[in-house]
Amino acid sequence: MDCCKTQTYERQFDENLASNDLRRYRRKGPDRTTRMLIKALKSEGVEGKTLLDIGAGVGAITHALLASGVRRAVIVDASGPYLGAARRVAEANGTQDQVDFVHGDFVELASSIAAADIVTLDRVICCYSDMPSLVSNSTDRARRYYGLVYPRDRWWVRLAIRILNFVQRLRRDPFLVFAHPNREVEDQILTRGFEGRYRHEGIFWQVALYRRA
Ligand SMILES: C[S@@+](CC[C@H](N)C(=O)[O-])C[C@H]1O[C@@H](n2cnc3c(N)ncnc32)[C@H](O)[C@@H]1O
Questions:
Q1: CA 184, CA 131: separation in Å to the nearest integer?
Q2: What is the mean pLDDT of the chain?
Q3: Domain count along the chain
């Protein structure tokens, strides 16, 4: 990741946001759409599998799946403070030795990241401008399952994101959110040999789980 991009992620996903999210996670557990993805994965059977959790935040998916029998996990996150928060939860759970914590842009690190049985990106695609590189590199590392939470392709979602980005530009904040066309995201996944296993469409977010056919 170039240094400007690194600074953008570190500034956006900073200590403040990470400790607020960590407090909320400790009080309430994973958010609703994250819980849906975890449930869909558990119903496929995760016992003994490996996990690559990209943009894990506080690591809600990693912690839940380790508790359900996932053997090892790798968390890759561009934010140091979020990586620290995920590590603190793993230490509290006594699972820190089962997790590798990698700091940086997954797309840039992809060639050095091993494949895993399960790859997840929970609310990550919308943070990244180069969706094709993020999706192609991450699906290439998924041996069996590929799970996503990302924004729906609806006018109200696009409008909300446009307003958000307008405010960001007014504040001269370089962090922008992206509403990547759903058809393009799905095409990237299906052409790499995956088939749909689960889908939930909410007002803003959708949850999708694919399995290698
Ligand atoms: C909106 S947060 C979501 C965190 C968590 N998955 C959740 O749903 O609560 C996005 C996270 O993805 C990370 N991220 C975004 N693009 C990334 C990339 N290309 N490589 C690694 N991490 C990335 C950010 O640093 C941040 O921690």
A1: 9
A2: 96
A3: 1
Protein residues whose CB sits closer than 6 Å to any atom of ligand 1:
9, 13, 34, 54-57, 76-79, 82, 105-107, 122-124, 127-128, 134
**Polymer length in residues for the chain:** 213
Using the mean position of ligand 1's atoms as its centre, give its distance from the Cα of residue 18 in Å. 11
pLDDT tens across 42-82, in order? 999 999 999 999 999 999 999 999 999 999 999 999 999 99
Domain that includes residue 181, residue range: 3-212
Closest CA relative to residue 13, chosen from 173, 146, 152, 166:
173
Give the mean pLDDT of 159-176: 95
Q: Which residues of 162-192 are buried (b: 16+ CB within 10 A; e: fewer)?
A: eeebeeeeeeeeeebeebbebeebbebbeeb
- Output the residue whose Cα is nearest ligand 1's atom 27: 57
Residue 32: CB atoms within 10 Å: 12
Q: What is the CATH number of the domain that holds 31?
A: 3.40.50.150
Q: d(Cα 122, Cα 148) in Å, to the nearest integer?
A: 5
* Average pLDDT value for residue range 10-39: 96
pTM over 0.85: yes
21: CA distance to ligand 1 center in Å?
A: 13
**pLDDT number for residue 76:** 98
